[in-house]
Amino acid sequence: MLTVSLTVWLVLLPAILFFVTEPARVAEPDKNSKADGLTLSEALTTPLFWVFGLAAASVFYPIFATTQQFILYLQSPRIGVSLQTAAFAQSALFAVSVGGKFLAGYLSDKLPPNRAMLAFAAIMFAS
Questions:
Q1: Which phi and psi angles does 84 have, rounded to 5°?
Q2: What pTM did the predictor assign?
């Protein structure tokens, strides 16, 4: 878990700070023209798709692993809370994470992309 977390901080965070920029605004596409972009099969052949996939897995794997085992950890002899208390803590964690999704959406609309990603990383670090 520490190795995955260090990878996020030492590789992904500097990459976000140096490579994520504000996208250029483009004019509205003509309604008769084909939309720009790739199909799924085309995207699967690009290295950038796989880099983003690896980055997402590196960020979200520790989160999923932690939340998956949270209730068991709280009930372990080391912590020793009851099932009801552990379930309440798991529910509270879920509620806070839902609120975080709304906060992330708000910050994504209000901040430049690299600043928003930096804010998200800081929030994850603080938690």
A1: -65, -45
A2: 0.51
